[in-house]
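Q: Got a minute? One more chain.
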Amino acid sequence: MENNLELKERISIEEFFGKKFKIKLVEEDVEKAAFTHYLNVIDDPEAKVFENSAIKFYKTLLEEKDSSEITWNDALEAIQYSLFEHKEKIPFPENPNPKFKFIDLFAGIGGFRLAFQQLGGKCVFTSEWDEQAKKTYFANFGEIPFGDITKEETKSFIPDGFDVLCAGFPCQAFSIAGRRGGFEDTRGTLFFDVAEIIRRKRPKAFFLENVKGLVNHDGGRTLATILNVLREDLGYFVPEPKIMNAKDFGVPQNRERIFIVGFRGDLGINAFEYPEPLEEVVAFEDVKEKKPVSVKYYLSTQYLKTLEEHKNRHLSKGNGFGYEVIRDDGIANAVVCGGMGRERNLVYDDRLEDFTPITHIKGEVNRLGIRKMTPREWARLQGFPDNYIIDVVSDASAYKQFGNSVAVPAIRATAEQLLKVLGCF
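A: Always. Here it is, folded:
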């Protein structure tokens, strides 16, 4: 027992997932996901779903570190010991006394989770396939999402009894074989997996998010099929979806997304009002870096020239494509993946004093003060607080992750309405 006590004293979660062990977060590693989920629900009924895989994983790692046989009970004791230190280092730990529980599908970096946790909820399952997003998610929530949600093995870890299903699922075309465009017509798409989970688990409500283009996707047939499945096949009350803009909820970003909420039919809910826009004036200066930023974010003269030529070519054809510089009193364009997400959100910043390049560029650093927004500015445009950790991945990954994320304040405002209808507060 003395040996085990010594063992527990030198165990930390960070050792297993940090620099010392350098365990790669790969999509197929179910046991790591189960282990971190177990830590977050260890005192809840949901823990049973993750327990065997979690203890098996931790026992294996303890034996690798200690080179001796570790019993099942010793592994469980070690988990309990490590839990306290682990939770102290997480910026956004779960609510110990939640008002409701939810799951986070296609979780990205946890925009839905932030919003629902702020409202008193506890997340009991997450899934996300992107390896870099998993690193960011773990750094902030202490949890590694499960991987491919289309796999039955992944679905088997979803616990029963949660209240709300959240999913920012990708937009995909369906093969509308039937007259109605029903459940079977969505097979092979990621929406089918969302619908299948709703069918099996019967949560009280769901909150789905997608790009604005879903409204007209495939001539409107895709959205019509989705609504038919949710309403007719699954039996949920689904009010008409609504296009919501992030700039209406306290962040200076013109980002329109479609929100779809639904309530289980037996709850007797037959009315829902999406939140009204706030009367809050916001501008880029509200999220702009307070201190001068690195020269690496400033455009080179050659890059700026290329952007100007590209824009002029489109202007000569009557197109409005091209880079854009957002004024401090302006509203940013939608932050999206790809180069144009950054190039349509350039800013003026004349605080740079040292123009010596620290990256390989063509030409010199421009003297006009034109730079890219920083990843932290993108995080603020999406409503992520400043204690949200983003430096565990490269800038390129961070831009991608925030470009793919939901705008937290818009999600929270709608979630609050949904939870009021459910009677959660």
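A: The longest strand covers residues 256-264.
Q: Perfect, thanks.
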